[in-house]
Amino acid sequence: MDKPLVSILINNYNYGRFLAEVINSALHQTYAHIEVIVVNDGSTDDSRDIIGSYGDRINPILKENGGQTSAFNAEFINSQGDIICFLDSDDSFKLDKVIEIVEDFTENSRVG
Asked: How far is the CA of 112 from the CAs of 11, 49, 80, 102, 105, in angstroms?
């Protein structure tokens, strides 16, 4: 696998207060070959506006509330990555998390 695409999947329901930090932690990874998909699962707070402020730097999925499983399914079906990373909307990634994961996958074919 030569420079795999990594999909970072963020699902969100009413966590607007954390959302910018979470999205920024995904976008600022030291590994650049990524796509960031953010599902807004019918939030009633300012999440939709925050997601919209990122323009084409992320792939937004705006849907009616269906619960976490439906959000996972929506992001997964829309992802193109060779490697999938889930990121909760109230968490964040260290800047080198994705490159460490890619290195583990490429150095050990049994991982995954």
From this structure: 22, 35, 17, 11, 7
Q: Which domain holds residue 96?
A: 6-107
Question: Shortest CA distance to 106 belongs to which of 58, 79, 87, 98?
Answer: 98
pLDDT in tens, 64-76: 999 999 999 999 9
Residue-wise pLDDT tens digits, 14-62: 999 999 999 999 999 999 999 999 999 999 999 999 999 999 999 999 9
> Structural domain tally of the chain?
1
pTM of the model: 0.94
Q: What is the CATH number of the domain that holds 45?
A: 3.90.550.10
